[in-house]
Amino acid sequence: MNMSYKYSTEVEKARSYYNSKDADNFYYRVWGGEDLHIGLYKSEDEDIYTASRRTNDRMAHFAQKIDENTKIVDLGGGFGGTARRLAERFGCHVTVINLSEAENERGRQKNREQGLDHLIDIIDGSYDEIPYPDETFDIAWSQDAILHSDNRKKVIEETARVLKPGGDFILSDPMQADNCNESVLQPIYDRINLSSLGSPQFYRKICEKVGLEEQAFEEMPHQLANHYSRVREETIKKEDYLKNYISNEYIEKMKNGLVHWVRGGKEGNLTWGIFHFKKNGANN
């Protein structure tokens, strides 16, 4: 399914970036080939794939119920790894809305290879215009994707709109700390072509306004630092191999850029965690 959107300038930058050959190959070959989100690490040298799978399972823990009747929308689902994990574990139906056509093609191929394409729909589109009616989904899910939007408020409004009353919104995102001096994060803003990141306070405020009530927040900034450190280590370790697929310029920029993410997490200017919100309504 391919929706026709007129993307904002900033969203188009994100789409073009993730569609690029360099970015597509980097995330596919370094981040484990399934997921594009921050992992939960049990040790500093644990592999990225295993840690990323653990994040999926931890986030699923917050949902009241997931079974074959559950309808989930995954906002910014990357290669669709989370959708496959959920569909395989619970037999639920997952709709992935993701900007990058390159990532989506990889995701559709993997769905077919793993015999899960009947449970997963992948849509080329933006999560600030979700192409579904009000109260369609039981669960809205997003991992480390909303940071790329230049209108995060609209994304949250759309999320609340398509959730059924009593539905769960389960969210993770790299965020600037509530007390952070934004000027220290300029190198990161430059890296992702945005002027800001969301913060825990921002998400709490916007979700409350649209009728999404906070249930829990597990804040784990150390996992953000762990993850980007592991990605940088893997990039350096696989550098000769990666040069067969990715330009030297991209690899060097990535190695340098990851340093800012690691430092931001260790110095307390960045944070990361898992939010659980529930939509007000009859089932609440």
Structure explained in plain terms:
The protein has 284 residues and is an alpha/beta fold. The chain has a domain at 9-20 and 57-221 and 269-279: 3-Layer(aba) Sandwich (Rossmann fold). It is built from 11 helices and 9 strands. The protein has helices at 9-19, 21-30, 48-60, 81-90, 101-113, 152-162, 186-192, 200-209, 221-237, 239-242, 248-266, and strands at 71-75, 93-98, 120-124, 137-143, 163-172, 175-176, 212-219, 270-271, 273-279. The strands form 2 sheets. Strands 3-2-1-4-5-9-7 form a 7-stranded mixed beta sheet, with helices on both faces. Strands 6-8 form a two-stranded antiparallel ribbon. Strand 4, helix 6 and strand 5 (163-172) form a beta-alpha-beta unit. Helix 9 (221-237) runs antiparallel to helix 11. It is globular. The two termini are 33 Å apart. The mean pLDDT is 92.
CATH architecture of one domain: 3-Layer(aba) Sandwich
What general form does the structure show?
globular
Low-confidence stretches: none
Largest sheet: number of strands, sense, barrel closure: 7 strands, mixed
Helix/strand order: HHHEHEHEEHEEHHEHHHEE
Structural class, from secondary structure content? alpha/beta
The number of helical runs is 11
Strand portion = 15-25%
CATH topology-level name of one domain: Rossmann fold
Descriptive tags:
single chain, 284 residues, alpha/beta, Rossmann fold, 7-stranded mixed β-sheet, two-stranded antiparallel ribbon, 11 helices, globular
Task: Write the SSE topology.
Blueprint: H1 9-19, H2 21-30, H3 48-60, E1 71-75, H4 81-90, E2 93-98, H5 101-113, E3 120-124, E4 137-143, H6 152-162, E5 163-172, E6 175-176, H7 186-192, H8 200-209, E7 212-219, H9 221-237, H10 239-242, H11 248-266, E8 270-271, E9 273-279
Parallel strand pairs: 1-2, 1-4, 2-3, 4-5
Antiparallel strand pairs: 5-9, 6-8, 7-9
